[in-house]
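Aim 2 progress update. The chain analyzed this quarter is reproduced below.
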Amino acid sequence: MVTFDFDETAQKLQRPPRRPSVSSSYLLGSEVVEPSTLRHCPQQRPDEMKTESLFKRKVQLAFGFAMLTLLLMGVLSYRWMVLSDESDQWVRHSQEVLTNIQNLRLAMGILEILEP
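Predicted structure tokens:
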């Protein structure tokens, strides 16, 4: 004959349901999701996020350095063009002075010949 203990059965029914521990499962909305089902989710780990942010920072620094280099080269090119233009003006002026001196000598030589 099978005996049935009503007190023990009543205690089992009154126990609160066992909840999964926080470390072994996750609460997603109103349902509990086990970690094994989350493996396919494209979530990034903190170390991957740090690596990605470090990579982005390096790219930004490289881009900034390239832009700074281009800006510096533009400023230096402009300055060299200004200096070259000034130098060309001085060369033209020197050639004009030499031409005027040569014309003056020629005129003085003609005057010496024509003098009685």
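The longest helix spans residues 46-114. The mean pLDDT is 78. These observations will guide the mutagenesis experiments scheduled for the next reporting period.
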